[in-house]
Specification:
alpha/beta, Rossmann fold, GMP Synthetase, Chain A, domain 3, 3 domains, four-stranded mixed beta sheet, 26 strands, AMP-bd_C_sf
């Protein structure tokens, strides 16, 4: 059987993708982790056995099952076993603790909760019991996964339009939002991502971020559509992870801007040798990318970099094309795929298309998030170029208002990234009696370099053409910017709390 990605992509459910790929290339690997190797055929057969074990436990189509598991083969097997049953699954980032986990369990009304036991020094089973979770079971390794006879299973789900996924926004400033997705919306996101990156069956990918992030399932959709494997990293740290990238011949790596910077910093420690000999592409999204990061990666690592724009509500909005111009790849988020409508309303990016979520668990949040024509309000500011590329200029909530003038934090951050002594930077507005807000630059510097001064920063920004009214009035130098544990986004609310 020789199916193309297009015909595989016509599958109405995620389980259809698994089944068709297993029939098409059963012996090709799909997951690589350490010495472990799982083929597409084994993914289908083992996921069915786990599904049968779950069915014997009482999991039925529509049953809500939450899971908080690290990026492991078992986690992928469990998620596709639940997809085989047509259960509603609620992935929770494994680094979350009582507040976020308790909220997710309560709001989703989860009837079962899969945990890894003690993982990285934290007892998830004890936390689950403390939170009053129902149906707790451990699913860290193969021997712990439920197991059963696939002949006992009911028929797989026949359609992919029902809500079967509840993902959670980061909740960095308030309670998380439960985002409702269908198999079809996730397939739409993953298929568009694979097409935009021009991946082939000869590629070897990598998942260095939590599989519980919406990007994890979208990545698996890519593997199923194009029939190539990915290396899983339970814990990502450089230089330790390099051996796995090299051993498996990874051709595509990344995750977010922070990952690009980590690879780049490691390359600079050995500038005469290619960091990963087989690597041809860094790709990701989830956080803004300064143009200088693009140019430095291409120049110093000798690989292409394509950056995209996505969010929990819409995992694939735009993506850079590896064959696009350097200018577009450096300064834009790429173009939307066919079927994704972008509208700019009062400077805000709004979206409509098949990859857009169905809304939120809270109906009031859903009503507030969509406009009268069904476009999702993203809260991001931007514009579309004549060539159809999207340029993001900041967040509605990340605009600094100084003496009545709107200032984009992102514009200043992009210029700060070009300073040779700046490893990373975040720009925030702080309350000020005279100005309303003042501009504060928070800079992360590498150990051992000369410490920056405010006058040096201002001179650099002036030389870069920044308007006088946008220049920072305050500089804070930190050893490390606070970040979340998923895609390592900078947590600006913590900076505001610290420096206000």
């Amino acid at each position: 059987m020789n199916e193309t990605p297009h015909t595989l992509g016509s599958a109405p459910t995620l389980w259809d993708l698994v089944d068709r790929r297993a029939r098409c290339t059963p012996d090709r690997p799909v997951l690589l982790q350490g010495e472990r190797r799982l083929t597409f055929g084994e993914l289908r057969s083992r996921a069915e056995r786990v599904a049968a074990g779950l069915y014997a436990m009482g999991v039925r189509p529509g049953t809500v099952v939450a899971w908080q598991l690290p990026t492991r083969v078992e986690t992928v097997l469990l998620s596709f076993a639940l997809a085989r049953l047509g259960a509603v699954q609620s992935p929770v980032i494994p680094f979350y603790r009582d507040r976020e986990v308790g909220f997710a369990l309560r709001e989703s009304r989860a009837e079962f909760f899969a945990v890894p036991g003690v993982w990285r020094g934290h007892d998830h089973t004890e936390m689950a019991r403390r939170l009053g979770a129902k149906g707790i079971f451990e699913a860290y390794d193969g021997s712990a996964l439920p197991d059963g006879d696939p002949s006992t299973l009911p028929a797989p789900p026949a359609e992919g339009a029902s809500v079967r996924w509840i993902y959670w926004t980061s909740g960095t400033t308030s309670d998380p939002k439960g985002v409702l997705h269908t198999d079809r919306s996730l397939i739409a996101g993953g298929s568009c991502l694979a097409h935009a990156l021009r991946l082939t069956a000869d590629d070897v990918g990598s998942i260095a971020f939590p599989y519980a992030h919406i990007g994890g399932l979208d990545y698996l959709v890519m593997l199923l559509l194009y029939g190539f494997p990915a290396v899983l990293f339970e814990h990502f740290a450089l230089p330790d992870a390099l051996a796995e990238y090299r051993r498996h011949g990874v051709t595509v790596a990344g995750g977010s801007t922070a990952f690009y910077s980590l690879f780049l910093a490691e390359q600079r420690r050995q500038p005469r040798e290619k960091l990963i000999p087989t690597l041809r592409l860094l790709a990701g999204g989830g956080a803004p990318k300064p143009p200088e990061v693009y140019h430095a990666v291409v120049r110093e690592m000798g690989v292409q970099l394509t950056h995209g724009y996505g969010m929990t509500e819409v995992p694939m909005i735009t993506m850079g094309d590896p064959e696009d111009t350097a200018e577009n790849l450096a300064t834009t988020e790429g173009r939307p795929p066919r079927g994704m409508e972008i509208r700019i309303a009062d400077g805000e990016v709004r979206l409509r298309g098949e990859a857009v979520c169905r809304g939120y668990l809270d109906p009031a949040q859903t009503a507030a998030a969509f406009d009268a024509e069904g476009f999702l309000r993203t809260g991001d500011l931007g514009h579309v170029t004549p060539s159809g590329h999207l340029v993001l200029t900041g967040r509605l909530k990340d605009v600094i208002i100084r003496k009545g003038e709107n200032i984009s934090a992102k514009e200043i951050e992009d210029l700060l990234a070009t300073h040779p002594l700046v490893a990373d930077a975040a720009v925030i507005g702080l309350p000020d009696a005279d100005r309303g807000e003042l501009v504060c630059a928070v800079v992360e510097q590498a150990p051992g370099v000369q410490e920056l001064t405010l006058s040096a920063v201002v001179s650099h920004l002036r030389a870069g053409g920044l308007s006088v009214h946008k220049l920072p009035e305050r500089l804070e130098v930190v050893a490390a910017l606070p970040r979340n544990e998923a895609l390592r986004k900078v947590l600006k609310y913590r900076l505001r709390e610290r420096f206000s």
